[in-house]
Amino acid sequence: MKRGFEFLKLLQENNNREWFKEHKPEYDLIKEENTKFFNQIYSELQKHDSLNKIHISRIYRDIRFSKDKTPFKTNFGAGFSRVKPLLRGGYYLQVGPDSSFVGGGFWAPNKDDLFRIRKEFEMNPEEIQQITSDKNFLKYFGKLEGEDGVKNAPKGFDKTLPAIDLIKKKQFVVRRRFTDQEVLADDFQKEVLLTFLAMRPFFDYMSEVLTTDQNGESIL
Length: 220
Fold this sequence. Notes:
By secondary structure, this protein is an alpha+beta fold. It has one domain (2-210): BirA Bifunctional Protein, domain 2 (2-Layer Sandwich). The chain contains 10 helices and 5 strands. The relative contact order is 0.14. InterPro entries: CHP02453 (IPR012808), UCP028451 (IPR015996). This is TIGR02453 family protein.
């Protein structure tokens, strides 16, 4: 990982195709090391959850619709998806200088899923509040994150509801940030796995919500 960080720091200063082409052999070796690292995490996580696949991000940026025309990402990332439709939620790991984190959750639920989540928060806010106030959740994540979709309350929801702060959200994600020193420590892989496992109560709750109707009957 140390060699990868050193490469990314140089890439931050030389984010152009000419420099990358010259250092491509070095990148290929680092890519091979990263793939092994990400697959080790996948194998360990698979012992505790049912995963569908691993998606390792490419270093090449899609700049077609971006004002930032730098061609390369300055971090390495991998996503680990759970087996649908029974299990919901996805794990994500990003490593890079001053930009490392472990995250997961529901980045862009579709219209029906978003409505179902909000209705559950409306009808029974205690369960999600208990999960997000648990000492283990607070230790690893601090709070449930995600952008608000509306300023006051979604259409059809009372702005005085006890869980209105959660109901306003259009994303439901958790994140634990790591310093460069923590990433380069010997126990980083272990800490990544422990952080992923700390997401499970949240994931399992949301999976139950999204596989049942408002009466608690299975929709699968």
